[in-house]
Amino acid sequence: GQGVDEPLSATGFRQADAAGLFLSNVKFTHVFSSDLLRAKQTAATILGKNKFCKDLEIKYDARLRERKYGVAEGRPLTDLKAMAKAAGEQCPSFTPSGGETLDEVRERARDFFEFLCRLAVELEQKEQDMHGAPSRSSGTSEEQLVFPWTNHCSEAELSSSNGGASKILDANILVVSHGAYMRNWIGYFVSDLNCTLPTNLTKSQLSSVSPNTGVSHFMIKLENGNLLKPEITCVCLNQDSHL
Fold it and tell me: Taking every pair of C-alpha atoms in the chain, what is the biggest distance, in angstroms?
């Protein structure tokens, strides 16, 4: 939850190191993190291993915090399940006293995602204003688009989502958050925004909470800067081959 703001454990730092090495060849344009300490430390560790953007500023945002669990904060999952059972409900839809509902978490995720979309559109507009031409394209090092998980997904998924390997992204954003929050965000992508999913993804994988430092990759296309109809493709979900 968000009420217990503890640092990473030794295991957590090892996992963050592994994620940093896994992502070390990815050139990010922006980094956003939850303002909870464990997420801050994870983001800093990942950037510290990066070959291109060690000095990139990490921006902290309370909208990326873990779900608030009220009276269940800091208690074992078994306690939360017992509370849900006593109330005649099930996790994760059960909301403990003083906690956030799933709808409230989703609203935070929606608000933050729309902020990211506006950011991307503004970047595109600035690029056009500077160069008088739409969008950057080939000519820069393709190393910028080397994602380490590409051999875990089909070529069709990648080519359909990035429009060709030489296309340079207007924004390549690293977001560091928390498991239950991210499950809600992904649910929002799928149910509200019709996100295209990998063909081999199962329902149980889709509803699972990501392992610590699990990596998910989404390609977002905003046709003609249209913020209302983002085209979203999930390239991989909760990738943990680095652990």
Answer: 63
Q: Please count the residues of the chain.
A: 243
Pairing of strands 231-239, 215-221: antiparallel
pLDDT digits (tens, 9 = 90+) for 70-100: 999 989 989 999 999 999 999 999 999 999 9
69 strand-pairing partners: 99
Tally: H helices and E strands in the chain:
7, 5
Q: Which two tokens stand for residue 223?
A: 């046709």
* Distance from C-alpha of 226 to C-alpha of 124, rounded to nearest angstrom: 12
Is residue 54 within 8 A of residue 48, CB to CB? The reply is yes
Asked if 215 contacts 23 with a C-beta cutoff of 8 angstroms, the reply is: yes
Q: Are strands 58-60 and 173-176 parallel, antiparallel or unpaired?
A: unpaired
Q: What is the rounded distance in angstroms from the CA atom of residue 199 to the CA atom of residue 189?
A: 16
